[in-house]
Amino acid sequence: MTPDPYRSACEKLRNELQQAQQDLRKAYEQHGSPARLLHGRARLVDGVLRSLWQTFSMPDSATLVAVGGYGRGELYPCSDVDILILLAAEPSAELGETIQQFIGKLWDLGLDIGHSVRTVEECVAEAANDVTIQTNLLESRRLCGSSKLYRHFISATKAGFDPARFFDAKCAEQEQRYNRFNHTPYAVEPNCKESPGGLRDLQSIIWIALASGLGTRWDELARHGLITAEEVRVLKKNERVLQQVRIRLHYIAGRREDRLIFDHQEALARAFGVKPTKARRASEVMMQRYYLAAKKISQLNTILLQNLGARYQPPGAFQTRALNERFLLVGDQLDIAEDDTFERTPGAILEAFLLMEQHAEVKGMTVRTLRALWHARSLIDARFRADPANRATFLALLQEPRGQTHAFRLLNQYSILGTYLPAFARIVGQMQHDLFHAYTVDQHILQVLRNVRRFLMEEHAHEYPLMTRIASECKKPWLLFIAALFHDIAKGRGGDHSTLGMGDARRFCRNHGLDKEDTQLVVWLVQHHLTMSQVAQKQDLSDPDVIRRFASLVKTERRLSALYLITHADIRGTSPKVWNGWKSRLLEELFLATRQLLRGNTPDQLMGVSERQEVARQKLRFFGLRPGTEDAFWKELDTLYFLRHDADEIAWHTRMLYYRPRGEEIVVKARPSLVDNGIQVMVYTRDQKDLFLRLCAFFARMGYSILDAKIHTTGNDYALDSFVIMDPNGREHYRDVIALIEHELTRKLASQEAIDCPSGGRVSRQLKHFPIAPSVSLMPDEKGQQFILSIVAADRPGLLFLIARTLIEHDINLETAKIATLGERAEDTFLVSSPNLGNSAHTIKLEAALIEQLRI
């Protein structure tokens, strides 16, 4: 084996590098200065690379160049070290092998190397075709080697450089990056580098400034009039926050990690010395600070980009016209007529946003206007909020026929909304560690407002046909915007946020001159914004009493329509994972049944047995079954069956089973459910104690979630069970697997194989760090004949199997199951019966056994 001539030198360098990096970390933890750490690690790596370059006796004609963030002289604890080996000509085979060995030794030293080996001509060609390469080369430093070659490289890359095109490319790049993160810095696991408001927003500004010859430091941009001294102070302060976050993330993760994932948030809070409050975790407090910093950076990024972009516009490029005595339209940007417009007329602060709603041609605000708005926030005080004219303007913002989504996002982004509504300011950047909200409270509220707005737009009618029709019939639909603003405004205060929010909503309505009827509607919506989803997802909608109770709560069709719209918008605004067609169907079913009842009609749910049978007979005639065909099968079914199943289900079951009510074969039939992304499965076989358990095990192993289950035993001791199932990951084309389900489930039931518990799968990261304490409630129903079992637990594969097995072990009969999954949280409701449930000792044992199974 050939001896390695560089081994000893490399081992020495590696040991020195490790020790020096440990010393840097200790020094950082003492002084806490991110700049000293970032520049210190860059200088440390500089020395290592120069030393190794000399060790390898690299040719004098070559140049070692630092590029990218390393070229900027900043290296985070686990960042890549990006280098360019610049050559005067294509390397010989011997030089190529030496370069390869050099790069390999850099990896052996423990450095994550990003490298390229190019001639000057190759650099110019590559940069012309790729803005990322162009950006990397823009921030370059010569580490060692030929200074002459490096000067040639600098002049050659600058010669073909077009600052205007570079500006456009970086703006397009930022827009694409924003799209990846849904244009919000307020996701629950943001990326402190790439998300809107992250470090990349600041780096993009520096790149454009550098390309424009305006310098590389914020103070230099201030001298060129691009940013004010006050804005420089705010920017540096918040840049430091993000730098601290990224540095500590690298140390906590032990690798390059830029996402503030749940796994690290508590550790990050401890590293910053953040303490929990009575109502919030330390991580929630820390994350709110992060969001506020990201918000400031996002604001300043907008201002700087506009100022930089203005340098590439020819004089007179934008037409100017007056909108009124206070505002101008410059191109498509709203501008103030005078620098002191807001000081002279504070009410113009809200008027600016109203003009954006009223004029579709207005796409944004000029830098002068944005700056003036930022500094004018202090003018919004108690006197401003009490001014009837300002209250009327704010109400008009909600009442305009268009533009609310954009206007209220900007109102929040520039801290006007939270200043005008102090209660809103408290939830800006507030985390929601409930494992199904994907956004902070303020962003969720704005998502809900956006969803309500979309219900009122004709162009979205194809997405929400029923919602659009209902919204178009609403009297004063802008009241829904008020309810959306206040429905979660009291989160994080402790106590019931719906009850606390009612007080905020009532004060707002009273202060803004709403009449008694409108005020009552808004307050009632805030109070009950969770009620409709709870009834739809947790109660048996086939039970007439459920519909009657809900109708007695709602009382009027106006309330019902408003609550349906708010509920729909609220659930859709939590997270893409939470909403599905099944939940939509349940809400629609509850809405339509309640509306019929309020109109004096009899909905299907309130039909008696004879009415349901008649509707089912009509459907059977449609399929060609002669009168009386169903009689033999229906004799085996009791009243409860006809009350728990709608006419369509009754007709489907009958078509499949009328000719074999006492057959020995196992009948499994499946069809696409009325929900567009699920399957309805019917099982008919001789009853057996563990049948439901077997079915749960089968569906779990197939990877399906059970959304609804109806368990029935016929008069001749046959089980007739119905399920609605779906793939939680949305991967399946359900029509393609119907035959597979029918065949495999029939085979499994016929084989009578031993029941094995399906694999529990891995617990999600979120549940590891924010576990859900399981809870079990067992209460008799209003009639005292059966019991309602309510379970809250962390959702995971096989959960329903564990519950079913425990019920069987305690001789509990399952009648129906309603499965509700909210992100990582399962909230399931079962209707059960057993003579044993009248015994309190047996009930306590059952609840304890369930809790034991539900623990992760």
TrEMBL record:
ACT domain boundaries: 680-759, 788-856
Protein activity control: Uridylyltransferase (UTase) activity is inhibited by glutamine, while glutamine activates uridylyl-removing (UR) activity.
Domain HD: 441-563
EC number: 2.7.7.59, 3.1.4.-
Xref: NCBIfam families: PRK03059.1, UTase_glnD
Function as written in the Swiss-Prot or TrEMBL entry: Modifies, by uridylylation and deuridylylation, the PII regulatory proteins (GlnB and homologs), in response to the nitrogen status of the cell that GlnD senses through the glutamine level. Under low glutamine levels, catalyzes the conversion of the PII proteins and UTP to PII-UMP and PPi, while under higher glutamine levels, GlnD hydrolyzes PII-UMP to PII and UMP (deuridylylation). Thus, controls uridylylation state and activity of the PII proteins, and plays an important role in the regulation of nitrogen metabolism.
Cited HAMAP family: PII_uridylyl_transf (MF_00277)
Annotated protein name in UniProt: Bifunctional uridylyltransferase/uridylyl-removing enzyme
The species this protein was found in: Uliginosibacterium paludis
